[in-house]
Amino acid sequence: MSEPILDITQSPHKKAKPDPEHLSFGKVFTDHMLTMEFSRDKGWHSPQIVPYEPVSLDPAAMILHYGQTVFEGLKAYRGADNQILLFRPKKNFERLNRSSDRMSIPPVNEELMLEYLKQLISLEKDWVPAAEGTSLYIRPFIIATEPNLAVAPSYSYTLMIILSPVGSYYPEGIHPVSINVESEYTRAVRGGTGTAKTAGNYSAAYKAQERATEKGHAQVLWLDGVEKKYIEEVGSMNVFFKIKGEVITPELSGSILEGITRTSIIEMLKDWKIPVSERKITMEEIHQAYEEGTLEEAFGTGTAAVISPIGELHWEDKAMVINHRQTGELSRSLYDTLTSIQTGKLEDPYGWTIKID
Ligand SMILES: *Cc1c(COP(=O)(O)O)cnc(C)c1O
């Protein structure tokens, strides 16, 4: 593909880079960002890279009132030989378009967006940290900008991509966490917006997360919104269980976000000839396996943590300790292999990584 036309305005002053030893998540941003506009008559237009700066919005901008917005999250890794790698980025733009479709936002050209992203990362490549476990977090998002209080899709939108150097999810090494199974609040229902990365899903989850935190747990395990029986996700991660050698993850029921890490883990397990199934699974089944001693491992999957092992599950008055609160053998190999592919330490047998020049 020929280089797409992208206007670049260089920032006149460059910020000091943060201390790579003390990076947190999403608090520091790079010198530039990408913006692109949508209008009814022009469609998506005027892609440009500009200095990172606050945005100006009309107080009646529709995003501020009805939350018409979508986002994505992916990472650029600095790997062996100083190369910069993206992990399956095309999938993020495909999912952005699926989220947008659900939220009545017009689709973007996925190939073009990937080319723009590569140019942005290339310009900001000095911001991709090198320390073990660190990366440059990439946040594409779209907001409805039309000044209009009518409850209807906006006529105009702004897409932005901002970049943030982030620290390791596991500064002390991968370790299992305690989970509260949420029996009252619901994250999503079939037919709702759970399959879309859209803002309201996340703020609506704070209440349950606060409750889990109060009880001393790290995350919430979400059950289906109708029967409160079937397992859906953990925090904002997909969830996997290993029972008697079989790996099970909830099927995409219409209220679960289709994680790219989830897809990759399923593909790796199939490649490794480990039985894996996507099906409905109830909390009752997990508890029964626990009682029988066949619940071997449990873990969440997502871009931020890659693999987050579950050491304890608290469901109503029942407490289940999984694998003596130790990271399971399979969880560990999946984590090691996938992170090594993402950082180029291991040759990528699947063609998942893309190099940035
Ligand atoms: C983003 C997200 C995930 C994980 O998706 P990845 O593509 O693996 O990062 C899972 N669940 C929810 C609710 C999410 O928002």
From TrEMBL:
Cofactors that this protein relies on: pyridoxal 5'-phosphate
Stated name of the protein: Branched-chain-amino-acid aminotransferase
Record InterPro entries: Aminotrans_IV, Aminotrans_IV_CS, Aminotransferase-like, B_amino_transII, BCAT-like_C, BCAT-like_N, BCAT_family
Pathway listed: Amino-acid biosynthesis; L-leucine biosynthesis; L-leucine from 3-methyl-2-oxobutanoate: step 4/4; Amino-acid biosynthesis; L-valine biosynthesis; L-valine from pyruvate: step 4/4; Amino-acid biosynthesis; L-isoleucine biosynthesis; L-isoleucine from 2-oxobutanoate: step 4/4
Record organism: Thalassorhabdus alkalitolerans
Entry's EC annotation: 2.6.1.42
PROSITE patterns, A to Z: AA_TRANSFER_CLASS_4
Keywords: Amino-acid biosynthesis, Aminotransferase, Branched-chain amino acid biosynthesis, Pyridoxal phosphate, Transferase
Top-rank taxon: Bacteria
Residue segments, region Disordered: 1-22
Family: Belongs to the class-IV pyridoxal-phosphate-dependent aminotransferase family.
Upper lineage: Bacteria, Bacillati, Bacillota, Bacilli, Bacillales
UniProt catalytic activity: L-isoleucine + 2-oxoglutarate = (S)-3-methyl-2-oxopentanoate + L-glutamate; L-leucine + 2-oxoglutarate = 4-methyl-2-oxopentanoate + L-glutamate; L-valine + 2-oxoglutarate = 3-methyl-2-oxobutanoate + L-glutamate
Pfam family, any one: Aminotran_4
An example Gene Ontology molecular-function term: branched-chain-amino-acid transaminase activity
